């Protein structure tokens, strides 16, 4: 059973699963989901907690032993399996066997990074997920962030002016932990409503944090101002320009291929699947393929090649200047 993070609280009050799987790419949402499940488990009498770190050397027979062991002090326990990597064959067998007959006095709580599509479609995961609640915590995108902030502010009894929400979103973009901390700080500083833009300016520091993939998403969306801001942030954080050049070259070639498939009449879903475009980025990729003309891609690829040469010292211009030109052509 798939459960969205925002649905988890309501689910836990109405239902209970013997297994929960919490994965994703947003650490704050993962930790909050785990805390909610642990808290509800304690209410239901699961007072003992056993943690198993499933690294490359982990012996999966420990899960079997933990499932069969009875505590001297409690008859209900939480067995946490913290995945550091995708389970190997022994792990897949152990998890599938556990799911086939879960112990009624145990809660199996599995956490880790997001599982790829091939893992989620595999027989072992389908068996595991049948009796389980599966929570996947994806990053909150820039467009969704104001709504997320407004909801979190409401839970704290805060009301922010719309412009204040937008400013807070800009200053905490890509950093949900900082967003939560700033909202908590605002709740301590201001008890009147609504909180204004000026108050946010005075109280909130710029905590925006970006990755190269945030730059890709902004470029695909055609958001020139945000793309340039992310590029400036990556430069100030010391990200190697060659890493950005390599990522953008791969994305440009993928979008050119997508553009060709779409023009040949292939359906967007089939084209994206054939090119292995991640599901969460398919809509943005299609937007970019429809917006940027084929001739412009050739110019972008030429600038990317010059960026590679600049990093290696055979091009006089700065690689960051060239990357700025790429951003302008791609998102402009």
TrEMBL record:
<keyword id="KW-0235">DNA replication</keyword>
<keyword id="KW-0548">Nucleotidyltransferase</keyword>
<comment type="similarity">
    <text>Belongs to the DNA polymerase HolA subunit family.</text>
</comment>
<feature type="domain" description="DNA polymerase III delta subunit-like C-terminal">
    <location>
        <begin position="211"/>
        <end position="314"/>
    </location>
</feature>
<dbReference type="InterPro" id="IPR027417">
    <property type="entry name" value="P-loop_NTPase"/>
</dbReference>
<dbReference type="InterPro" id="IPR010372">
    <property type="entry name" value="DNA_pol3_delta_N"/>
</dbReference>
<dbReference type="Pfam" id="PF06144">
    <property type="entry name" value="DNA_pol3_delta"/>
</dbReference>
<dbReference type="GO" id="GO:0003677">
    <property type="term" value="F:DNA binding"/>
</dbReference>
<dbReference type="InterPro" id="IPR048466">
    <property type="entry name" value="DNA_pol3_delta-like_C"/>
</dbReference>
<dbReference type="GO" id="GO:0003887">
    <property type="term" value="F:DNA-directed DNA polymerase activity"/>
</dbReference>
<dbReference type="GO" id="GO:0006261">
    <property type="term" value="P:DNA-templated DNA replication"/>
</dbReference>
<feature type="domain" description="DNA polymerase III delta N-terminal">
    <location>
        <begin position="20"/>
        <end position="136"/>
    </location>
</feature>
<dbReference type="InterPro" id="IPR008921">
    <property type="entry name" value="DNA_pol3_clamp-load_cplx_C"/>
</dbReference>
<dbReference type="InterPro" id="IPR005790">
    <property type="entry name" value="DNA_polIII_delta"/>
</dbReference>
<keyword id="KW-0239">DNA-directed DNA polymerase</keyword>
<dbReference type="GO" id="GO:0009360">
    <property type="term" value="C:DNA polymerase III complex"/>
</dbReference>
<dbReference type="Pfam" id="PF21694">
    <property type="entry name" value="DNA_pol3_delta_C"/>
</dbReference>
<keyword id="KW-0808">Transferase</keyword>
<protein>
    <recommendedName>
        <fullName>DNA polymerase III subunit delta</fullName>
        <ecNumber>2.7.7.7</ecNumber>
    </recommendedName>
</protein>
